Amino acid sequence: NGVRGMSGVKETSVTVNDKELKIAIASGLKNADDLVRKIKSKEVHYDFIEVMACPGGCVGGAGQPFTMSEGKQKRGAGLYAADKMSSLKRSEENPVMISLYSGLLNGKVHKLLHVNYNRGE
């Protein structure tokens, strides 16, 4: 897939109803800032932009074990391989998650699952 990986800005296009849409994914806020500058100067144009605050997206995010880029790449490859084998692609369709959210976590999601993270802690 052309949008996976650790590079700073990835580009792809998809066709929807005979219209080609240009898509960019910026990995990390510095790359997002660079992309915004290029868009403002009309150097590039996209129909859709995703900004992942953490370099590499959630694979390299603050909630993950801190590791060098090789570890992040291995973690990402493992996640993509597991996803490829899974018949469920969306967590909101997973019967276990549906049961968990409507039972044990009902009304407590924010309190139990949301965290604040500071790298200095």
Q: What gross morphology would you assign? A: globular
Oligomer: single chain
What is the CATH domain class of the largest domain? Alpha Beta
Distance between the termini: 36 Å
Structural class: alpha+beta
DSSP helix fraction: 25-40%
Strands across the major sheet, in which order? Answer: 1-2-3
> Uncertain runs with pLDDT below 50, 5 residues or more?
none
Largest sheet: 3 strands, mixed
The number of distinct β-strands equals 3
Number of domains: 2
Number of helices: 4
CATH architecture level-2 label of the largest domain: 3-Layer(aba) Sandwich
Structure, described:
This protein is of the alpha+beta class. 35% of the residues lie in helices and 18% in strands. The model has no long low-confidence stretch (mean pLDDT 82).
Please provide a brief summary of the model.
By secondary structure, the chain is α+β, with helices and mostly antiparallel strands. The chain has 4 helices and 3 strands. The mean pLDDT is 82.
Question: Helices and strands in order, then pairings?
Answer:
Blueprint: E1 9-16, E2 19-27, H1 29-40, E3 48-52, H2 69-85, H3 95-102, H4 109-113
Parallel strand pairs: 2-3
Antiparallel strand pairs: 1-2
Tags for this model:
121 residues, alpha+beta, Fe-only Hydrogenase (Larger Subunit), Chain L, domain 3, 2 domains, three-stranded mixed beta sheet, 4 helices, 3 strands, globular
